Amino acid sequence: MNMKTFAKKIGMLAAVSALAVSTACSSGGSEPEEAEATDTEAAGKQEQVAFTDIGSDIKGNDKPTAEQIAEVNDTLNDTYLGDIFEQEIPSHYGAYPFPGDVTLDVWMPANPDVPDMNTQAVQDQVEKLTGIKVNFITPPVGQEADSFTLMISSGELPDIIIDPGRYPGGLEAGVNDGAYIDLTEQMEKNAPNYSEWRNSDEMRRKTTVTDDGRLLGFYGIAPYSEWMWFGMLIKQEALDKTGLEVPTTVDEWHAFLTKAKEVGYSEPLNYGSSYGQLFTGIINGAYGVWDWTFLDADGKVKWGPAQPKAKEYLTTMQQWNKEGLLNRDWATADFNQRMATAISDKTAVMMDSPDTMWSYWKQQNDFDFVGAPNPVLNEGDQPQVSYKNFMRAGTNAAITTQAENVEAAMAFLDFSYTKKGWELLNYGEYGKVHLIDADGKPYYPADSYIYEDPDGQPVATTLHKYRMHNWPDIRDEHNSNPLIVAEGSYSGDIRKTWTEEMDASMTMPPITFTQAEASREAELGNQLATLRSEYFAKIIMGEMPVDAYDKFLAEAQKMGLDEFLSLHQAALDRYNQR
Amino acid sequence: MLTLRKNKKGNALAASERPKTSLMIRKDVRKNWFPYLLAIPVLAWFIIFCYGPMWGVLIAFKDYKPLLGFEASPWVGFKHFVDFFQGPYFWRVVKNTLLLNLWGIGFGFTAPIILALLLNEIRNKMFKRTVQTITYMPHFISLVVVAGMIHIFTADEGIITQVLQWITGKEYSSLLGYSSMFRPLYVFSGIWQSIGWESIIYLAAMGSIDTSLYEAADMDGANRLQKMWHVTLPQITPTIVILFIFAVGGLMASGYEKIILLYNPLTYDTADVIASYVYRRGLREASLSYSTAVGLFSAVINFGLLWMTNNIARRKSEVSLW
């Protein structure tokens, strides 16, 4: 039998079929793009619509009638909302309801507490008010990065992508590679609210534009710089049992934790790491060994793990770990495991967010707690933190090159930057979720769905269920985060005190990289991050001696630490010139 | 080499009789159309999923950006290979892949053979079946569930951790946090998962051994152990060799699923293998071209290993894949 010819034929067949299959696939993928729908009326409709003033009916009304509720929820009338911030929130509603039947596909990492974004309470109302229907595409929780890569590789993009910085190299690379569109030219015309809001403050303007002056997406922009949101939290009962004051220096902390262990907290400090707690600057900051890049006294970029006192820091933590002051599973515990330990009687101190702990400790388990400033080395030093919010909050959005109706996509996103959008996205539905006080400021009444969920879910869940917590909008965290504003909650006070008392001047501003820099920066950054996590974790666990740090530093240098820093320095210089 | 030469001769001969062969094939197809029909889905599977996407390895030599498309992405030659070979993780992932698989061959490959030999000696049918069922049950548990079980059993106060503390007298926190524990945990949980299932093929081979061989051994006064050693084992050697070739051919390959379910940055230095590295770089960090280059590299080495083992096996035992 002639095997060779047979094989040849099979090979040919395979090649031909492969070709056929691949062409079939590719022709399916590249459907002819429909011409952008342009609406000639839009320009005329930008004018301000006049509303009847319903302020007197709604302001301070704690028992609104069904008609009043409908008036607030179903119309764009915002005359009852006060101006509570330094800058007035814009209210250009000319584009709504958007003409025609438009449905936008929006890719968005899901929140595990919201099973289906398409039925999320707030989004239904946004659709009603804007006249734009939205179909959310949400990747499985925990697989966001993989799903994003697969989506990009498939070449099939939705209209809007939330958190577009996931694109390798960032937003700018995404625009250059043809994933997202440059919105600079259209912003003023199609997104009047966003434009006005971002230009109302110099910091907002500077952090939402690229180095070369382009506008590539819609950034979440807060009315103010949000408070510091994580740090040392001590159970009140631990302070009572040990009879000690809130510690301030590293030595006092050591004494406190030791005493706490004596009185029965078997793993007093919960030092989690699997979602970043190892390097939040809380303890390492005292040694100047910041997690990542920071500004030194001369405004130059430095890398925290390479700072001179790193060995001191590692020696201390190794010692603490050896003495059993840290939770034993700190290197592997996930969020749920951490919270389970937190509420047990093993833990005296958490390194976490006061909002989260207010829910888990106080609300669900009735543990009172206090916030402590980040430890310092010497008595009297000012505590430091490398976190500063540059009025950038929530998340970002970009419009893809495959968006069929860019104008509709922009109008949809722009709604979040109107007064009505601010009310709706931050405070949810009027009536069931929030009411308006006499000054025109929204608030949650005691029987709000936020606190008294008909399904019985805790506030940590309802804050995602009845309002938007992470969205490209005017995020009003301090007034609308129910964990902060709930009656009796002191998490906001802790955050405020931290922010006021700690020095955050070493924080890096939100710089951006050029496309050429971005891929190199990402590569070096990933390698350095992995190296740092490995060495630091192992040294603290005692699997490696502290002297292994020298090897770590040598390896970091070899990987290209200097190049990495020069990329950051260049980006910082450009940022300062924006 | 010997078979190769034979093939060449065969081809040369057949070339002159080409029409006859195609006629034969056509005749054969007409006669046995049903088996051919049955083969079509398998053939289609190979063509669509194995050969079809093969041209995609070309992106290993490009700086591939999906949205620019294959054509518009620039050629970069061997840049990604050079980056990988000179990069800080090259030796680590190669070493880990090899070591993990050697551990796998050392323990994981022999375990089902031993189990099969032991089961073969059991005369009580009820007991034998019970043992078999119990040992191959884990095979049907989803990998994610298995990983979840490992996480629970090796946690701070997990049962495996407790037993280990009791034996060694040392304090351990979660075992998955120690890089020295990764290989044993990975390999022995793998044995637990697959020992029963993999022993089936050996049991089948043992079932087909001619009973007269045992009778002859009995006549010669061989005891059980001697029969096992001199009759059973040699009789299943071809099966063992074939499976061994497969195992060695996969030395540089390994499934990444179980590894990424179990590893963490603390154990990267023993747990990070080529496949998990490719997954991290390719899917999580979206360096598609780079990870394709790494994948291609390991595929080439695998093919070399497979070829080498096959040749050695053919020379030494006359059992081989081709």
Secondary-structure map with pairings?
The complex is a heterodimer of chains A (578) and B (322).
Chain A: H1 3-29, H2 42-45, H3 55-58, H4 66-74, E1 102-107, H5 121-130, E2 132-137, H6 144-154, E3 160-162, H7 170-176, H8 187-190, H9 192-198, H10 202-206, E4 218-221, E5 231-235, H11 236-242, H12 250-262, E6 269-270, E7 293-295, E8 301-303, H13 310-322, H14 335-342, E9 349-352, H15 354-365, E10 369-372, E11 392-399, H16 406-414, H17 419-427, E12 435-436, E13 442-443, H18 459-465, H19 477-480, H20 482-485, H21 491-501, H22 515-541, H23 548-559, H24 561-576
Parallel strand pairs in A: 1-2, 1-3, 6-9
Antiparallel strand pairs in A: 3-11, 4-11, 5-9, 5-10, 7-8, 12-13
Helix pairs in contact in A: 13-22, 15-21, 22-23, 22-24
Chain B: H1 2-15, H2 18-31, H3 33-51, H4 69-72, H5 79-86, H6 90-121, H7 125-136, H8 143-153, H9 159-168, H10 179-207, H11 211-219, H12 224-249, H13 257-262, H14 268-271, H15 274-284, H16 288-317
Shape call of chain B: globular
In percent, how much strand structure appears in the residues of chain A? 5-15%
**How many helical elements of chain B?**
16
CATH homologous superfamily of the largest domain in chain A, by name? Periplasmic binding protein-like II
Q: Low-confidence spans of chain A: pLDDT under 50, at least 5 residues?
A: 1-47
Number of strands of chain A: 13
